[in-house]
Specification:
The chain is 46% helix and 7% strand. The protein is mainly α and 500 residues long. Helix 3 crosses helix 11 and helix 8 packs across helix 11. It is flat, with a radius of gyration of 28 Å.
């Protein structure tokens, strides 16, 4: 409340001064401009601080970005790795709890053998992003060694995408990303932005730690969801992760997730001890920021700047398309360090409005933008195609009229830029979707057996369709009469189904 009062007083004083001096700029513009400069400088400050903190002479010992703990300054808030004294490590101290047990040793052995190549690639990429992530975590009051959680999630890849459609270095699902302030639409996906995604991850991890009071449980909840871990705690009546791990309720992925992070931390802070002496670390991220209008053609802009489009995409991984979001008045764009003067000289006064859109001629008589969107798999047509064509999505289009598509002229729709539109979901996802659709159909037209007198015991290999055929029961009736099972999962051997 004090902060809001302070801001209000400052705005009132500034407004009074402007009105007294008859100046044209209004106070809101001044406040907005100052705010933008602060946001812009914050990202640059993080990046600059991260670069300055990198000491190449120590990177053969410990991954840059992780916590640097002096044993003589041990204050009880850091954690000592007990039971691993025989390994003669360079670093035994961490700012998250790390345990040396059978589960952790299993993952250490994996990254030293079959997974050695993965660890090298993760670590090399970590040279670029880990110092930045560690700096942002620390500035948000979190342990730096949580960078190893990001390493476990994505291997520090900004464009990483899981089968479940979690995206970015912190692997946010769409709902969770939006919940913690990340913008996700047709034009941008801020889960890929290493700055904004790390701030969002800091908020989420802080919330999980406050809720569970344990970094092990917070990490498990980050993987499985707080609801899942909360139910496991109630079921087994323990708040100890290693005891929860003994039960069957948590999935193997979650059970392995925490020891995997710990193994990465142990190796990552003792690179030389484990034989990772010659990792070719990427240079820490380095850039400058400029303001460009919304709808800027990045292909033409890159050419005039003497860059490849990939250079812009590399520094701005959150931009999904070939132009900046046309829904934004301005967009903060990162360009390679040292090119701001080039931008001012060649491009700052030039307009790069995206106009090279592909065109589609309407063939049918009863077609609207929603139909065109479905044809080209452009989701949310109401604000993509509608804004582009200045037409309502449901308005009928005349035969022969031309619709602008958000693809670039001469560009194949199979381009990696549009992979998110045309990727095929995993078979298991398709099966689950079809199963849910079949349940909905059955609920709308099936007749439930009120007092069952006959039952069928499911055998191995049975499906709902085969049971309905064997027992000569209507499939819709079979489904609605056994929803107590089918609403939760598909049938399994041993289930009793009502058939009469």
């Amino acid at each position: 409340m004090k902060i809001y009062k302070s801001i209000f007083i400052q705005m009132f004083i500034a407004s009074s001064l402007l009105s007294c001096s008859n100046l044209k700029p209004n106070n809101k513009e001044v406040v907005v401009k100052n705010t933008e400069e602060k946001v812009l400088s914050k990202h640059l400050t993080w990046a600059n601080d991260a670069r300055e903190s990198v000491d190449n002479s120590t990177m053969t010992t410990s991954m840059a970005g992780s916590a640097e703990i002096n044993p003589s300054d041990y204050d009880g808030k850091t954690y000592f790795l007990y039971g691993a004294e025989h390994l003669k490590l360079d670093n035994y101290y961490f700012d998250i709890p790390v345990v040396y047990n059978a589960a952790t040793k299993k993952w250490i052995n994996y990254f030293l053998t079959r997974g050695r190549g993965f660890f090298k690639r993760y670590s090399a990429r970590g040279g670029r992003y880990a110092p930045l992530l560690g700096k942002i975590l620390e500035d948000n009051g979190l342990p730096r060694d949580l960078i190893f959680l990001a390493m476990a999630e994505s291997g520090f890849q900004t464009k990483a995408k899981s089968w479940a459609r979690a995206v970015g270095p912190w692997q946010f699902m769409p709902y969770t990303g939006k919940r913690f302030g990340l913008k996700i639409d047709w034009y941008v996906d801020e889960r890929r932005d290493p700055f904004k995604a790390t701030v969002a991850a800091s908020k989420y991890l802080k919330k999980l730690y406050q809720y569970f009071g344990s970094w092990e449980l917070a990490a498990a909840a980050y993987n499985a969801g707080e609801g899942k871990v909360g139910r496991a705690i109630r079921r087994y009546k323990t708040e100890n992760f290693w005891n929860l791990r003994k039960g069957r309720y948590l999935k193997p992925e979650t059970k392995n997730y925490v020891p995997k992070i710990m193994a990465l931390a142990i190796i990552g802070k003792n690179l030389k001890v484990f034989g990772f002496n010659e990792i070719d670390f990427h240079d820490p991220i380095d850039f400058e920021e400029i303001k460009v209008p919304g709808g800027t053609d990045l292909v033409e802009f890159s050419k005039d700047m003497g860059l490849d489009l990939e250079d812009i995409q590399y520094l701005n991984p959150e931009i999904l398309r070939w132009f900046t979001p046309p829904t934004d008045k301005e967009y903060t764009l990162r360009i390679p360090a040292g090119l701001k003067d080039t931008y001012v000289a060649c491009c700052s006064s030039k307009e790069y409005k995206a106009v090279a859109f592909q065109k589609y001629k309407i063939r049918g008589r009863r077609t609207n933008l929603n139909d065109v969107a479905r044809k080209f798999k452009i989701k949310k047509a109401s604000y993509v195609l509608s804004n582009l064509n200045n037409t309502k999505p449901n308005k009928r289009l005349k035969k022969g009229s031309v619709v602008l598509l958000p693809f670039r002229e001469g560009q194949s729709r199979k381009n990696a830029m549009y992979a998110d539109l045309y990727e095929k979901p995993r078979k298991v996802v398709v099966r689950r979707k079809n199963y849910r659709k079949r349940l909905r159909i059955a609920k709308s037209r099936g007749k439930r057996i009120m007092n069952p007198s006959q039952w069928y015991v499911v055998r191995r290999g049975d499906s709902l369709w085969s049971v309905a055929r064997k027992t000569k029961t209507n499939l819709d009736t079979l489904i609605v009469s056994n929803l107590s099972i089918l609403n939760r999962r598909q049938i399994r051997a041993g289930d009793k189904l009502a058939i009469r």
